[in-house]
């Protein structure tokens, strides 16, 4: 009888301990392509205003390829926004995503940008301007793991310029770092339109030429949920909402199912 009382006492104590333990908050951990820095910062702020009691959304920015490798190795992200649709698809095939949550959210645009005061008439000359001897360094994202870098090379291939310009290349780890190089360590850069249109970047001056769609590898961007949770699911839905689409449009993205 004493043993039974002891057993019941232990069980009762465990139940009280569990009831007294607060539920662990689900923080939305987002791995996002670097071209999304400005639009997603605004989007997170809009989400916080719409859901003031929601748990935090924490965003890490970088190259889509590096995030892909980290996620495969078990990185604790709950949502992945890639600048290349191949990575979410491969994660889905590997069983590392929540079924049915892979969606297109935008198509990225590519620009060739020159800093304020540059003698290069980039808007008139387009890619051919990069052959000017006064352009000694051209910044682009590392094509090994940054979709905008791969797209930049395909753009130069389209115009038959890759081989001649290769000695001028300065590689950034992702498109945001590439934009910094274009400002400080190069004479031109092949950048994301979303960065060129950001107010803080546009305030620096400079000009750009917008690459027509079809002249480079398509930047079809997708998101996917990696770990289920009500907060992650709600933020995923918000990224796909009408207000979010307007923000993507503001930063120059082409929206899914739009020309």
TrEMBL record:
Gene Ontology BP annotations:
molybdate ion transport
Keywords for this protein: Metal-binding, Molybdenum, Signal
The answer to whether the entry has keyword ATP-binding is no
Pfam families the UniProt entry points to: SBP_bac_11 (PF13531)
According to the UniProt entry, where is the signal peptide? 1-25
Name the positions where molybdate binds: 64, 175
Annotated coiled-coil segments of the chain = none
Q: Which InterPro entries match?
A: AvModA-like_subst-bd, ModA, ModA/WtpA
Q: Which GO terms describe its molecular function?
A: metal ion binding; molybdate ion binding
Matching entries from NCBIfam families are given as: modA
| Family, as annotated | Belongs to the bacterial solute-binding protein ModA family.
State the name under which the record lists this protein. Molybdate transport system substrate-binding protein
Question: Which organism is this protein's natural source?
Answer: Deinococcus reticulitermitis
